[in-house]
Amino acid sequence: MDIQSVSCVYFSPTGTTRTIIENIAVGMQAEHIEMMDCTNRSKRKGESFVFNNDIVILATPVYYGRVPEEVVPL
């Protein structure tokens, strides 16, 4: 499979989730990798994502079986 583009959307307060998702994308040997950081709440407002013919990877850490409350919209 020839992968042209991978978009990674992630929430990573400590940077570990970003490292993992980035390595997954690199391992897919895509021609173009786009990283979209949703960690900072102020960066999330007003930003919309459009994915055309991309593989999209969504990632967030899980603590004790739960996604952090900061990820869930208020």
List the helices and strands and how they pair.
Blueprint: E1 5-10, H1 16-27, E2 32-37, H2 41-44, E3 55-59
Parallel strand pairs: 1-2, 1-3
SSE order in H/E notation?
A: EHEHE
Gross geometry: globular
The major pleated sheet works out as:
3 strands, parallel
Q: Specify the number of helices.
A: 2
**Fraction in helix:** 10-25%
Strand order of the largest sheet: 2-1-3
Radius of gyration over C-alpha positions, nearest whole angstrom: 13 Å
Strand content: 15-25%
Low-confidence stretches: none
End-to-end CA span? 39 Å
Which secondary-structure class do the elements indicate?
Answer: alpha/beta
Total strands: the figure is 3
In total, the number of domains comes to: 1
Mean pLDDT: 83
Question: Which key terms come to mind for this protein?
Answer:
single chain, 74 residues, alpha/beta, three-stranded parallel β-sheet, 2 helices, 23% strand
Outline the structure in words:
By secondary structure, the chain is an alpha/beta fold. It has one domain. Helix content is 22%, strand content 23%. The protein contains two helices and three strands, in the order βαβαβ. The chain has a three-stranded parallel β-sheet, covered by helices on one side. The longest helix has 12 residues. It is globular and about 35 Å long. The mean pLDDT is 83.
Please sum up the structure shown.
The protein is an alpha/beta fold and 74 residues long. It is built from 2 helices and 3 strands. The mean pLDDT is 83.
